[in-house]
Design the sequence.
């Protein structure tokens, strides 16, 4: 396509021609809105040349004779004049189009220069942000180094006190710690473990329905103390979080059931910690709390609790067994082979889901069953009961 016929050139030029902005751009010392644009407009007006212009005369008597004579003369010399007019018109059009292109290109260059200035400002801002980020990162590394030194000193002092017999196992953490459980269950378990002489770092655990890695976790305190165990969570959406913050633990994306290896529907609810494989339970939760709904249904493979114990705790039962699978705790408890596996401490949910505070309610059938198996209820937190092996 020839440059003079370019659509882009015409568009830019028309915008230039119709612009009311006095502060436009300059080209080789000429102000386009001033001298150059005036020249371009004049070229546009006079670009076409014609040999047959109107012949007039104001003289009343000789006028007709003069006009007739001029017409005759024009016809006689037209063969000579017409090619000159055509060449002049062709030249005018070429010059006019060239002026259009030059003006349009000048505007484009100006726009590009403005864009370049903007990019340079953005780059400058980005460089400043990167510099600030690097400074913050350096500060964070310094803080982390100080924290690591404090932790190292704390561990050294704790070890020395234990070696001297001044500090009993778990005693320092027992009264100076943060609880992560829903109702302080981990604090009670820590007290029991300390009383039984079990080092917190040795409190292995099996957490059924682990849910979040830290929040409302009955086992995270012991993980921080150096212990490790197995986390079983059916909700696949929570597995990345567990893997990130509980990397020392074995994490199973399975659904605890009475049989292993089958695929079951698992209902993920909008309410935290209420997802379940029991559809009737899910409906009940939604009915109890209209703000809760079933967000998604996924397929999850089942595994029995005894299979988990046999595979991961074959040599020694876990110190802590935490069960929180939304109303199915009793069914899972009844499936345990207590002759082969006896966790020292067992936590089980004892109340139905309600939106208000549940007072004076507790599943007595679970207590009776646990007593038959040689466990005594040590504490009830209003939500969970904590049982201790009495054998």
Sequence:
């Amino acid at each position: 396509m020839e440059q003079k016929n370019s659509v882009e050139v015409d568009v830019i030029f028309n915008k230039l021609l119709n612009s009311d902005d006095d502060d436009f751009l300059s080209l080789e010392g000429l102000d386009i809105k001033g001298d150059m644009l005036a020249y371009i407009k004049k070229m546009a007006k006079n670009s076409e040349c014609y040999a047959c212009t109107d012949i007039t005369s104001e003289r009343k008597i000789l006028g007709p004779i003069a006009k007739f004579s001029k017409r005759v003369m024009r016809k006689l010399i037209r063969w000579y004049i017409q090619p000159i007019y055509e060449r002049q018109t062709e030249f005018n059009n070429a010059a006019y189009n060239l002026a259009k292109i030059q003006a349009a290109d000048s505007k484009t260059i100006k726009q590009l220069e403005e864009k370049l200035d903007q990019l340079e400002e953005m780059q400058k801002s980005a460089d400043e942000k990167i510099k600030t980020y690097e400074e913050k990162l350096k500060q964070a590394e310094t803080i982390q180094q100080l924290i690591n030194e404090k932790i190292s000193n704390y561990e050294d002092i704790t070890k020395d006190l234990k070696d001297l017999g001044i500090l009993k196992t778990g005693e320092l953490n027992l009264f100076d710690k943060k609880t992560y459980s829903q109702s302080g269950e981990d604090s009670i378990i820590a007290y029991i473990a300390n009383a039984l002489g079990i080092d917190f770092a040795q409190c292995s655990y099996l957490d059924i329905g682990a849910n979040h890695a830290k929040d409302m976790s009955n086992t995270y305190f012991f993980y921080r103390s150096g212990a490790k165990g197995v986390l079983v969570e059916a909700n696949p959406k929570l597995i990345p979080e567990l893997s990130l913050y509980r990397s020392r633990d074995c994490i199973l994306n399975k659904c605890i059931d009475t049989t292993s290896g089958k695929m079951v529907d698992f209902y993920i609810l909008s309410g935290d910690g209420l997802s379940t494989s029991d559809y009737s339970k899910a409906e009940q939760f939604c009915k109890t709390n209209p703000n809760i709904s079933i967000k998604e249904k996924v397929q999850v493979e089942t595994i029995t609790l005894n299979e988990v114990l046999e595979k991961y705790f074959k040599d020694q039962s876990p110190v802590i067994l935490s069960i929180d699978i939304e109303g199915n705790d009793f069914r899972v408890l009844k499936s345990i082979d207590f002759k082969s596996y006896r966790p020292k401490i067992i936590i089980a949910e004892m109340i139905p889901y309600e939106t208000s505070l549940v007072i004076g309610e507790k599943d007595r059938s679970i207590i009776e069953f646990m007593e038959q198996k040689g466990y005594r209820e040590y504490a009830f937190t209003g939500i969970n009961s904590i049982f201790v092996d009495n054998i």
Remarks:
- The chain has two domains: 3-130, 171-258+305-389.
- The chain has a mean pLDDT of 79.
- Residues 63-163 form the longest helix (101 residues).
- The two ends are 96 Å apart (CA to CA).
